[in-house]
Amino acid sequence: MGPGPISAYPSVLRAMSAPLVGQYDPFMTAAMAETQELYRGVWGTRNDATLLIDGTSRAGIEAAIVSLVRPGDRVLVPVFGRFGHLLAEIAERAMAEVHTIETEWGQVFPVSVIEEAIVRVKPTLLALVQGDTSTTMNQPLDEVGAICAKHGVLFYSDATASLGGNAFEADAWGLDAATAGLQKCLGGPSGSSPLTLSERAVEVVRSRGRVEAGIREPGDASAADFVRSNYFDLGMILDYWGPRRLNHHTEATSMLYAARECARVLLLEGRDAVIERHRVAGAAMLAGVQGLGLTVFGDLAHKMNNVVAVEIPAGVPGDEARAAVLTDFGIEIGTSFGPLHGRVWRIGTMGYNAREDAVLTTLAALEAVLRRFGASVPAAGGTDAAADTFRAA
Amino acid sequence: MGPGPISAYPSVLRAMSAPLVGQYDPFMTAAMAETQELYRGVWGTRNDATLLIDGTSRAGIEAAIVSLVRPGDRVLVPVFGRFGHLLAEIAERAMAEVHTIETEWGQVFPVSVIEEAIVRVKPTLLALVQGDTSTTMNQPLDEVGAICAKHGVLFYSDATASLGGNAFEADAWGLDAATAGLQKCLGGPSGSSPLTLSERAVEVVRSRGRVEAGIREPGDASAADFVRSNYFDLGMILDYWGPRRLNHHTEATSMLYAARECARVLLLEGRDAVIERHRVAGAAMLAGVQGLGLTVFGDLAHKMNNVVAVEIPAGVPGDEARAAVLTDFGIEIGTSFGPLHGRVWRIGTMGYNAREDAVLTTLAALEAVLRRFGASVPAAGGTDAAADTFRAA
Q1: Which residues contact A34 (CB under 8 A, 6 or more apart)?
Q2: Which of B180, B121, B192, B194 is nearest to B151 (CA)?
Q3: Is the residue at A3 inside a domain?
Q4: What is the pLDDT of residue B380?
């Protein structure tokens, strides 16, 4: 019940035990195509360039940034938590000229502040986290795409922590690139990163095309400003997933099965229904921790559905209490990074864990542990409030 | 039965269905430490820096090269097949000054030729494929480490296709870095890349240390020549696997379980016993295809145990016949790249597939399909020769 990785859906765990096949076996290429189509549904996009990067969520981030950003390009990163710093870091390593704006942890940016910075910086790319688990905040994106389009800026968002548990509309919101991971609301293991690119982003990637030595054929492009990574060169990855099926990496078959099953679970239940389930479970957990008398961190109007940060009560040893919840109840909760390290616990309700029994059991365990460490908490204050929320939903 | 990916060991498939835990759960960190120790056994090393890269085998290659090579450094790549070109490509993208020497496909390099090139080029790094699946050749490495040490050159080898099915002694052979994948002789899925670094290599990596923004603390190093990738910065990956457990990526738990089980299977059977099983299965497959009257490609004295390339007989449509083996018998064999594309089939005997029934079934299928396409083949010529090899082993 931490901020992710989380307990996966049982069917996702089972999917990974399926036998492997060769990478150009028609069964495999059909599974790849099916996965692409399923993720179009997850992302809310008709983007042809919808695929998986074979690595964890930050592999997807790096693939998007190094493929879209040339050395020297300006990149604007609004930072409202740890993962904004990560986007800036990755862009800096890609030799971009990185500009950041920052807001206090626990807040998000008004869209006007983002537009002002765009006008001032004139970036090639706006790189914006949607849900930053470090602060639990959910940055509104719905008006940002139009602003980027108006100013000729590519719009990339990292939706690792939010996708599947909060609204995300790649096409309607004007995203040019978005990446995620399975280990949060999608309810799978870390190790595969769904990615989608608009046609405008594909054009940028294609303009830097280079087919690798060893399989290059006469007539294949080799741009001077080719991507300085082989593994993350989206041009080659598109050729691998696309009709040309040019050999690049060997697709991580078991992780593909997992990613496919994550999307199937979501679309079978219904994308809106899954988000609503996250909303209710998150509201119940919020009511529960408040019912235990705990103070919640951050701007609640912009909290992600799937994670809550609670201030560790004075006098309670945070790490020791967290260890007790894990050791005695088998339930993991997290702390956070930077200014919030040791100050808050983060409790998730994501994917398979966005369930009433998971929420209530966690609150019961938390109550018992808080009490043991001397905190004064209302008896059943957490479970009652959470159960009421579920009953009212 | 292609050149990989292959059918995984059943216990490896099952291992991936195990429940996930949080990344700093003591169970998880213990699993990571256990995996490191198991891979020391697989690699034949006492290197502390033995871990997994969360990506496919080429992710491991890129991590090793971008972390060991600074822009402008000279890298020497002896190319004897497609994957030598890949190492050169990755080093070139890392902005190294890349020098290659080439030998005819189907051959390996005499060690004297490699030493001459080292003396001439004076590289920082020698990057040398051990087993190149494109040609099936197994480059002898046992004398190369001493030569590199003599000339002050770092010695890196890509053992993706060979590790576990052919001898590999990281310490005894003087390797500074080596990487692999699970999807060949280790009998697992693609998506996790075992990597090991000598102390000398760790020193190079550490000299370029930079802790990423967002978790950097006062006193943390930030070298000017930091690695131009976040995901593949081995300094940060070492901090994540090491006692500091600094947050980097979120470990791909299910793939870690798979990698751990691959190593367990290998070490339980015994490293030498597994290599011998590959030797026998490979010899049987070789005898079998020869028993069918097929011509084998390349220098047989330097063939990897686990794959054989056979010339497609004149008059037989290679791709159609391969499709028939797959469609009618459910058995996959491969073709190859570059000059060998459409000229040879590659048949593997790797990991779980290095078994008598797998070899004989494949040869029976191949005989039937060759006959259907009009080739004149001795009845039971393949299966008899292979069975004799197994009986004599």
Answers
A1: A260
A2: B121
A3: no
A4: 97
Do B193 and B249 belong together in one domain? yes
Whether B3 is in a domain gets the answer: no
Q: Tell whether the model's pLDDT for residue B145 goes beyond 90.
A: yes
Helix (H) or strand (E) run with residue A117 in it: helix A111-121
A255 in the same domain as A131: yes
Asked if residue A62 belongs to a domain, the reply is: yes
B251 close to B23: Cβ distance less than 8 angstroms: yes
Contact check, Cβ <8 Å, B326/A25: yes
- The domain boundary, picked from B247, B267, B287, lies at B267
Partners of residue B296 on adjacent β-strands = B310
Same-domain check for residues A19 and A118? yes
Same domain, A287 and A210: no
Interface A–B counts its CB contacts (< 8 A) at 219
- Name which of A263, A46, A218, A341 is nearest B214 in CA terms: A341
- Whether residue A99 sits in one domain with residue A224: yes
Selected residue of B211, B250, B331 to mutate for chain A interface (largest A Cβ count, 10 A):
B250
Q: How many CB atoms lie within 10 A of CB B203?
A: 11
b/e sequence B85-124, b meaning 16+ C-beta within 10 Å: bbbbbbbbbbebbbbbbebebbbbbebeebbebbeebebb
Chain B: residue whose CA lies nearest to A225: B93
Structure-block tokens of residue A98: 């990185």
Domain that holds residue A109: 10-267
- Tell me which of B267, B286, B305 is where a domain ends: B267
Is B262 found in the same domain as B277? Answer: no
- Mark yes or no for CB contact B6/A17 under 8 Å: no
Residue B14 φ then ψ, to 5°? -65, -35
- Evaluate whether residue A4 is within a structural domain: no
CATH number at residue A278: 3.90.1150.10
Residue A393 corresponds to which tokens in the numbers above?
Answer: 């939903």
The structural domain count of chain B equals 2
With 0.95 as the threshold, say if the pTM is over it.
Answer: yes
DSSP state of A210: B
- Taking CA atoms, what residue in B is nearest to A218? B338
Under 8 Å between Cβ of A361 and A345: no
Instruction: Tell me how close the Cα of A10 comes to any Cα of chain B, in angstroms.
Output: 8
pLDDT in tens, B224-279: 889 999 999 999 999 999 999 998 999 999 999 999 999 999 999 999 999 999 99
| B78 contacts B109 by C-beta, under 8 angstroms | yes
Residue A23: the pLDDT is: 87
Rounded Cα–Cα distance for residues A130 and A373 (Å): 36
Strands (DSSP E) along chain A, which ranges? 49-53, 74-79, 97-102, 125-129, 131-132, 137-138, 154-158, 177-179, 193-197, 307-311, 344-348
* Shared-domain flag, residues A201 and A260: yes
Instruction: Judge if A245 and A284 occupy the same domain.
Output: no
Tell which phi-psi region holds residue A124, choosing left (phi > 0), alpha (psi between -120 and 50) or beta.
Answer: alpha
Task: Tell me what the mean pLDDT of segment B5-30 comes to.
Answer: 95
Which member of B93, B247, B250 has the closest CB to residue A57? Answer: B250
What CATH number did the domain enclosing A143 receive? 3.40.640.10
Q: How far, in Å, CA of A140 to CA of B310, rounded? A: 59
| Closest in A4, A250, A258 to B190, CB measured | A250
Nearest chain A residue to B248 by CA distance is A58
Which pLDDT score, from 0 to 100, does residue A350 have? 97
Q: pLDDT-based confidence at B210, cuts 50/70/90?
A: confident
The answer to whether residue A298 scores a pLDDT higher than 80 is: yes
